[in-house]
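Support request from a user on the community tier.

User writes: "When I paste my structure tokens into the form, the page sometimes reloads and wipes my input. The last time it worked, I copied everything first. Here is what I submitted, just in case something in the input itself triggers the reload:"
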């Protein structure tokens, strides 16, 4: 069902229909498929095929984030950081970003680095920011690469180096 839902979401072999995709994601999620639950959350977050509801998106994300779904963990962190669908909480955002980052999410690593750089929910630490930016940059995250370059350009958390900033 999830695969058929993806076909409807992308128009692969069928006429595109996010309404049909969301229905199929829901059915697959009810059978315990984590990816389908995550995709249903994305549908709610974007209002695609269902009425837009960040509260419903958070419910979907939480169900699978607690089971280890990295994308849901990252998205849940973003929801807590922005206060969409849940009360805004930097500490909860950090919690979910850290879990996703420790599982290899470059997006979460970059977000965690930004939190350390800007002292959002954690004490400011440019050294920690650089650590997380570097890990995300190695995975090819362009935003983290830029952020790391800025750290080198201004000597934040590392020795100032134009050569490193330019890399």
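"...and here is what came back when it finally went through:"
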């Amino acid at each position: 069902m999830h695969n058929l839902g993806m076909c409807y979401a992308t128009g692969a072999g069928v006429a595109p229909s996010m309404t049909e995709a969301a229905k199929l994601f829901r059915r697959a999620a009810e059978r315990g498929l984590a990816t389908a639950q995550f995709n249903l959350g994305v549908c709610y977050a974007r209002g695609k095929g269902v009425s837009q509801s960040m509260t419903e998106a958070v419910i979907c994300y939480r169900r699978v984030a607690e089971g280890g779904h990295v994308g849901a963990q990252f998205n849940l962190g973003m929801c807590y950081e922005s206060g969409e669908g849940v009360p805004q909480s930097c500490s909860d955002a950090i919690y979910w970003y850290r879990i996703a980052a420790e599982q290899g999410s470059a997006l979460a690593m970059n977000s965690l680095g930004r939190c350390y750089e800007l002292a959002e929910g954690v004490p400011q630490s440019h050294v920690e920011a650089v650590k997380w930016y570097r890990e995300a940059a190695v995975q090819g995250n362009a935003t983290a690469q830029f952020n790391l370059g800025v750290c080198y350009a201004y000597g934040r958390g590392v020795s100032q180096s134009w050569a490193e900033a330019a890399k």
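Agent notes: The reload is a front-end session timeout and is unrelated to the input. The mean pLDDT is 96. The chain is about 70% helix and 0% strand. Escalated to web team.
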